[in-house]
Amino acid sequence: MVDDATFTRESSAMLPRLYRLSMSILHAQADAQDAVQQGLLRAWAARNRARPESLRAWITRIVINECRNIQRSRMRVFPAERVAEPAPQHIPEDLGLYEAIDGLPEKLRTPLLLRYMERYSEREIAASLGVPVTTVKNRLYRARRALERRLSEVRFE
């Protein structure tokens, strides 16, 4: 059981991470903000069921589920086309890497971002995604190999 102060402190500290994760899944600023907000509301409502030792993974899992809910609703609303997003405020220097990561399937991209961008442990990633640790290790390996291939193709073009 997590008390209100602990939940508020931990979830506030996680906001930038949750937003980056949501953006990597949804690719739309408004949708990512909605996913984080809705996910935190759901987590707040169920905070009495959370365990302090796995709070971070639990909240992350809820936000990932919200992202998937938004993706499903998007498919019903916009089946053939995607709404254009405004250009990002900050353009990273190494667009090749970001484009390569963005080109990965979600099931490879999400563990990769959680591990290397957000510094989650393999165990936390497994809890967040609801898969065994060995699956996380396998997906990280496959994601690194896919990135390696994509980036070597870009260098030689």
- End-to-end Cα distance, whole Å, is 54 Å
Strand content: under 5%
CATH architecture of the largest domain: Orthogonal Bundle
Largest sheet: none
Sequence of secondary-structure elements: HHHHHHH
The stretches of 5 or more residues where confidence is low (pLDDT under 50) are none
Query: Can you tell me the CATH topology of the largest domain?
Result: Rna Polymerase Sigma Factor, Chain: A
| Structural class assignment | mainly alpha
Backbone CA Rg: 17 Å
Count of DSSP strands:
0
Share of residues in helices: over 70%
The rough form would be described as globular
Description of the molecule:
- The protein has helices at residues 4-26, 29-45, 55-77, 95-102, 106-116, 122-129, 133-156.
- The chain has 157 residues and is mostly helical.
- The protein contains 7 helices and no strands.
- It is globular and about 50 Å long.
- The model has no long low-confidence stretch (mean pLDDT 85).
- The chain is 73% helix and 0% strand.
- It has 2 domains: 1-86, RNA polymerase sigma factor, region 2, helix turn helix motif (Rna Polymerase Sigma Factor, Chain: A), CATH 1.10.1740.10; 92-157, Arc Repressor Mutant, subunit A (Orthogonal Bundle).
What can be said about this structure in brief?
This protein is mainly alpha-helical. 73% of the residues lie in helices and 0% in strands.
Task: Note the topology.
Elements: H1 4-26, H2 29-45, H3 55-77, H4 95-102, H5 106-116, H6 122-129, H7 133-156
Helix pairs in contact: 1-2, 1-3, 2-3, 3-6, 4-7, 5-7, 6-7
